[in-house]
Amino acid sequence: xxxxxxxxxxxxxxxxxxxxxxxxxxxxxxxxxxxxxxxxxxxxxxxxxxxxxxxxxxxxxxxxxxxxxxxxxxxxxxxxxxxxxxxxxxxxxxxxxxxxxxxxxxxxxxxxxxxxxxxxxxxxxxxxxxxxxxxxxxxxxxxxxxxxxxxxxxxxxxxxxxxxxxxxxxxxxxxxxxxxxxxxxxxxxxxxxxxxxxxxxxxxxxxxxxxxxxxxxxxxxxxxxxxxxxxxxxxxxxxxxxxxxxxxxxxxxxxxxxxxxxxxxxxxxxxxxxxxxxxxxxxxxxxxxxxxxxxxxxxxxxxxxxxxxx
Length: 310
Fold this sequence. Notes:
The chain is of the alpha+beta class. 45% of the residues lie in helices and 23% in strands. The chain is built from 6 helices and 9 strands; from the N terminus they run αααααβββββαββββ. It has helices at 3-27, 29-33, 37-42, 60-84, 88-159, 245-250; strands at residues 163-172, 179-187, 193-206, 225-227, 232-238, 256-267, 273-283, 299-302, 308-309. Strands 3, 4, 6, 7, 8 and 9 form a 6-stranded antiparallel beta sheet that branches. A hairpin with a 6-residue loop joins strand 1 and strand 2. The protein is rod-shaped, with a radius of gyration of 68 Å. The two termini are 114 Å apart. Residues 41-56 have low confidence and may be disordered.
């Protein structure tokens, strides 16, 4: 049985008690004789009436009526109290609603926690992305710098002067005693070569020269000249010795040859210094001196060493 039915039962019991009390007062012999204190107190004398007559003495019926009215009032008050109390189901509903609200708040707190974690992850990811972007930008900037530098170097390579040393002929001096090797300077580049200095020497060596043969220690001349693109000029390099034609012919069987060692120093228009070296031999096994002092075309062969150009 629910609490509400218990309350109704208590109220009904109260009504029965009040009715029993009223019945007891009604059947009370003292009340009938007018000596009951309860009935007398309910009808106390308040003074003379307006007519000046002495009030009439209360009888038992009036006392019984007042007690019944009080009982009825108490029952009505009890019923109103019961009516004003909230239903047990409403309390359970409120408790259930409060519990659901707390659970919802807990769920939202959990959701907000995960949202905060996700925001932190996104923030870290954004920072990593920013760092990667900055690094990529820096790499792109360095790559652009390297590309610009490479383009500049390519332009310099394409535009700079290229000076080469090539053989131009062979001969003897007027007395037919000193061999002369003619050396030609050529500029195959797009711009002029400046501060050009040349040094060369002729040696009479057995062919071929060994791979560890050192390049002679020769110093470039003091004179400074300029060679323009596609411009050439020749320089004679004289052998510092006195070999006659007969001696040269006698040495053919031992494969002796004249070797020229030449060095060219210059700068391009960008101010970068360069050095060109050359070494070749002259084959004069079938050479005949027709006239001393003349330049002859002979067979020559570049050596495997000391032919470098930057």
